[in-house]
Amino acid sequence: MGNLCGGKKKQTTHLDKVKKELNGIILTDDQLRRHSQEFLKQINLGLAKKTNAEADVKCFPTYVQDLPDGSERGKFLALDLGGTNFRVLVIDLGENFLFRMKSRIYVLPPELTLGTAVQLNDHIAACLSDFIHRHSIASSKLPLGYTFSFPVQQHGLTKGILTNWTKGFNVSGFAGHDVVQLLKDAISRRGDIDIDIVAILNDTTGTLMSCAWRYTNCKVGLIVGTGCNACYVERTENVELFTGDRSKPYMIVNTEMGALGESGGLDYLLTDYDLAVDKTSLYPGKQKGEKMMSGLFLSEVIRRILVDMVEKKLLLNGEMPEKLLHKDAVQTHYMSDIEASKEKGSQKDCERLLKDLGARTVTKQDCEVVAYVCELVAMRSAHLAGSAISTIINKMGFKDVTVGVDGSVYRYHPHYHDYMMSVMTKMIDKGTKFEMVLSNDGSGRGAAIVAAVAAKEHGH
Ligand code: GLC
Prior knowledge:
The protein is an alpha/beta fold. The protein has 13 helices and 13 strands. The protein has a domain at 60-213 and 441-451: Nucleotidyltransferase, domain 5 (2-Layer Sandwich), CATH 3.30.420. Strand 2 (74-81) and strand 3 form a beta hairpin. The longest helix is centred in the last third of the chain and has 33 residues, at 364-396.
């Protein structure tokens, strides 16, 4: 394998100094190979019953064993909980891959993401009731697919225990409980709606299913957004935690790969910036892989680097803007915005970021440094994602694979896809055809498709 990380930066002495400082963020081929080996090892530990407890990557069975064949039809409700907002949708799957969808975004007050299970579920049930009444579908008792994008140990398609929170949520009374039952309890507390929850799923599963509706060779679902995770199609015989009917040959497995590195297997990659981000996060020591890959954490990595660059007098002439010292002062969208404006030869987003942070004078050189930092951090994330997906594709052994991808980082960063591809073309076994496709609305349409497949299965 050659060098995966070639760059073509304009050389300036100043930028050279910055590059030298940040060299550790650029991953070498060997580091990526080790990353891939570690991921494969952890997947195998996660799949096996007797080692699952010690595995970083839990490889949860999803109980989704049938991929869609495009014939799925009907009207479904979907709930999507997993990020800053909460959505309710009604989706009508029709002929020729046409579908109609109405959705509403409900604000999730931040205090609810740190409150109690009863408060959060009552809020979800209230939004659901509001939606159903607005759309006058209260009498139809539509089947509902619930996209709940956190680590869930499933015991069936409609039963799943939350193992731990991720992505900034920390709601008490949830972990260790059946997520579906908690919502059903909240719905009965209201008593004004009648809902048939037919499936609970992860957003990666929804993404895979949504993509597979069209691309029958879609075997992997990837999210790189607020969080980062992937699911894939595994042989049922390898999914030892699965307790149901083993006659079907395949099952989607939710890797929860964001947790990779929790037992120290990625320590060789961690920079001081990563260590600081981890230490000051809501769950130190947890989701170590995700902290190098997903939007929620990348902006913090960027902020830490910028602070260091100012301290080293490589940025803003050494004048520290006070705001920059505060956690989460850099908003996630800047990473993609800056790259997009750089494409157009503009530094306006770098300037905007530094000015928003309170910098008084911003030079062209400062903007170059900021753009470079953003590029490096995004590239590292994409290279890790590329290595992870290559590992999965090689493990599955299918010769023609489509990867369905969603998430704000992948979607809005102009080069993320290409960065991933540069690694994948080198790491994926020769002779395997693969492509990555932006999967539209996995959490919504995917939930409807999972619900539709489940309904078909049960003869509805
Ligand atoms: C976090 C969650 C995972 C989800 C991912 C993307 O990693 O634990 O379940 O799929 O974020 O939203």
